[in-house]
Amino acid sequence: MFVKTISSINKLITISGTPIFQFLQPIELTSEDNGIKMEVIAAMNDDKTLIVYLTMRDLTGERIDKTMDLYNYSINGATMFTHELVHYDESTNTATIRMIANGGNKLNGKKVTVRVSSFLSDKQYFKDMETQVVLADVINYSPRVISLNMRNIPGGSGDLFPELEEKGIINILNVDEKSIEIPNIDFVKITNIGYVDGRLHIQTKWNDTRDDHGFLYLLNAGGDRIESSSVAFGIDEQGSTAYGREYLEYIYDIEPQEVSNYSLYGSFVKNNNYTEGKWATTFKIEAVDKSKRVIRDVELGNSKLDEITIQPLGIEIRGNIKDSDRFDIEATMDDGTKITYNHAVIGETNGETYIKYFPTSPTKIENIKELRINGLLVEL
Question: pTM above the 0.85 mark?
Answer without folding.
Answer: no
